[in-house]
Amino acid sequence: MTTGTMTTTTTRDRPVRVERRHHLAGTWQLVRLALRRDRIVLPIWVLVLGLMASAGAGAYETLYPTQAERESLTAVMANNPSVSLIYGPAYDLSTAGGFTAWRYGTLVATFLALACIFTMTRHTRQEEDTGRHELLASAVVGRYAALTASVIVAGLGSLATGLLITVSLMGAGLPAAGSVAFGASTALVGFVFIGIAAIAVQLAEYSRTANGIASAVLGAAFIVRAVGDASADGSWLSWLSPIGWATRVRAFADERWWVLALLVAAAVVLTGAGYFLLPKRDVGMSLIPARPGPAAAAPGLRSPFALAWRLHRGALIGWTVGFALMGAMYGSLAAGIGDIIGDSEQSRQMFERLGGADALVDAFIGMTALMVAMIASLYAVQSTLRMRAEESAVRVEPLLATRVSRLGWAASHLVFPLLGTALLLAVAGFCTGLLHGLRVGDVGGQLPSVLGATMAQLPAVWVVAGLAVALFGFLPKAATAAWAVAAAFVLLSMFGPILQLNQAVLNVSPFQHVPNLPAAEFTATPLVWLTVLAVAFTGAGLAAFRRRDIG
Amino acid sequence: MDNAISVTGLHKSFGRTKALDGLDLSVATGEVHGFLGPNGSGKSTTVRVLLGLLHADRGTVRLLGGDPWRDAANLHRRLAYVPGDVNLWPNLSGGEVIDLLGRLRGGLDQKRRAELVERFELDPRKKGRTYSKGNRQKVAIVAALASRVELLIMDEPTAGLDPLMEATFQETIQEEREQGRTVLLSSHILAEVEALCDRVSIIRNGRTVETGTLAQLRHLTRTSISAELAGPPNGLSTLENVHDLKVEGNHVRFDVETAALDRVLKQLTEVGVRSLTSQPPTLEELFLRHYTDDRAVARK
Ligand SMILES: Nc1ncnc2c1ncn2[C@@H]1O[C@H](COP(=O)(O)OP(=O)(O)OP(=O)(O)O)[C@@H](O)[C@H]1O
Ligand SMILES: [Mg+2]
């Protein structure tokens, strides 16, 4: 496609003002194209994220009808670090609004950020990867058009989510100020990550890498605020994270409006940086130029697994480092839990009733293990779907036209969702156990116990991987639904209990069946069952993959 | 002689799209067989059935004496495949891809590899997308030709090659033929087909419309004749094999099916011929007729 370059050459000869406008030429068509391509996904995430909070707000009155219950909720939850770790700080649990903002604020913002990242890369970098962008670029599309169109589409999604949150919360009878603060802070987190993705797509060479960079920033933002929210003396850490800012707007608890300005400023600066970096690279290339590779393959590159290792290596290393950091941070927090809880007389009583310091620490470790496992299940989905990505990119066919069998090829990839997840859990469990052990001066006792509690989650993670394999085998075109399955399990385990959902519904999530170690008694039976299920799903998926058409 | 590939009555549908509708194809061992047809006629689909990537709905398929669906991995040791659209792994260099595919196929001839890399002027150190389309194609061609296999299955291998590289490609295929390899070559480049293929099969709408040597196919087409006669022509219009007859006084112009040429010329010499020009069918005309003309299908 030489026409793309021709277009740019001709614009160079024109006066600057014309050039500006020319650089945005075709934006509107690209926006319409993107909206058309996302016509199902975009409304889904807007609806789910926009209505989640108001659904929770509605439940509050039923779940905690009396003043006494609300006070006890505050006592148990508000100062409990293992809870703040996930949900963020609780400012006011005595009102439906305060409860909703606490329970859903962090999570909705995180998921919205993720949706924005994926939307941004899909319409920028991925278009370049597939060569579709060149096709469009040849049809008089300006240099900044694709980036602008993605910003507009992802921005519209964020805006719509924020508006829906505000309107639905007000509709549920909550105060207008808090509803606006909640909606605005959530939408603005979306905008901040639109900016981060705008930078990532310039730095990375492939959409996969761009997603990785931006998601890693999001993960870091989440963990930094988790540590800040859960520790007594490190709360300043939360001020380093855009997600931390969103909770510090304090929706429904004496709103601090000026914090919104931080989010606006960050979004503007980051997006601007993306625009600044864009002209510094060529279409289809990254800012960091690709280095040439070896002229011949190393002797080891001779099996499907050797290839799979090359393809999964980068992501696995990234995830492993992330899990090590996460584990280390949780481990260093665990012992301090009693200190934080002992602030007020009321919480001290609560604390005794809950079984004292040891029980609280155990609960914290159990919660950590669950968190780690749920995040590991996302890696399981990502690494399983790599098979589908390879298939869609028509890179499987040349391989299957050699003596590599279908099962051999699939097995080479499945090493990662099956054993890679084991590695991630082990690393996280080891780091948590080691740091916790060091703090309480009992590495020999704590390390195996924490590691065991974490590893016990592995069969549940495998079930998620097995379901992803089954989707890949039976419904390859819908394989990405595996993300929805994983998200549903995570949401069920996180919100199911507090919404007092029916046990039968809760039991759908595999994480529900893992014994809550180290507090609970260890029982092998559920783990065996989960493993059997995982094997059955994987086996069925592979059998289907063997008999279906490739492509 | 054995057939390396024999396909009869092959059917394959994708949902409501009928991609293959009773296709027949036989490729004798040791021949270079051209596989032609308009866009969307089912060439790639056939190739993918032959490779065991797609499951045929109906029909029999034999490849190197085996069933490509059941014995895929075993048969694949003996063949190499060049896809029409080569997608390389972004983080692997071209050289790595050549070696990997060769090894997965069961070994590759290092001397031949080096020679091919040289002849195709390929830089094996570049990675994935940094190759141009033609160079990606070359990576796949070198990977296939550097393996010592019996059968080469190539789906539009030269789409994107420049004329020089096209010539190199034709040379290498000639060498493969001399070595006794069988080649199934799907192509839209008629000069390439003419230069390389012993026999061709032309398909249309998922069905084989013609198969044979190029000489045989030429025989089925028409020659254009323009002649100045001694007197008014008679009886020409009643001849079955004459088409598009135009008479202006003593001057006639018409197309005649090559098989009936002799009989028609006799008719002309009876009247007396003053001057005559004849134009043999070009390959382009031959294919265009098959690609566009429904009569070609009807005649079968
Ligand atoms: N996976 C698929 N799903 C649905 N339809 C398909 C699929 N693969 C091929 N087809 C359809 O089958 C028909 C034959 O396609 P095929 O790719 O075999 O054509 P072709 O002869 O190789 O064409 P070309 O010369 O353009 O390469 C087309 O109508 C195509 O749209
Ligand atoms: Mg084709």
Automatic annotation (TrEMBL), chain A:
Record field: transmembrane:
40-60, 101-120, 141-174, 180-201, 213-237, 257-278, 316-341, 361-381, 414-435, 455-475, 482-506, 526-545
Per the record, the domain of life is Bacteria
Q: Which UniProt keywords apply?
A: Membrane, Transmembrane, Transmembrane helix
- Protein name in UniProt: ABC-2 type transport system permease protein
Identify the species of origin.
Prauserella shujinwangii
Highest classification ranks of the organism: Bacteria, Bacillati, Actinomycetota, Actinomycetes, Pseudonocardiales
From TrEMBL, chain B:
Gene Ontology terms: cellular component: plasma membrane
Q: Which organism is it from?
A: Prauserella shujinwangii
The highest taxon in the source lineage is Bacteria
Q: Where in the cell is it found?
A: Cell membrane
In the record, the note on similarity to other proteins reads: Belongs to the ABC transporter superfamily.
Question: Where is each ABC transporter domain found?
Answer: 5-230
The membrane-topology field of this record reads: Peripheral membrane protein
> Which keywords label this protein?
Antibiotic resistance, ATP-binding, Nucleotide-binding, Transport
Q: Name one GO molecular function term.
A: ATP hydrolysis activity
The molecule here is called ABC-2 type transport system ATP-binding protein
Query: Which GO biological process entries does UniProt record here?
Result: response to antibiotic
The record, for Pfam families, names: ABC_tran, DrrA1-3_C
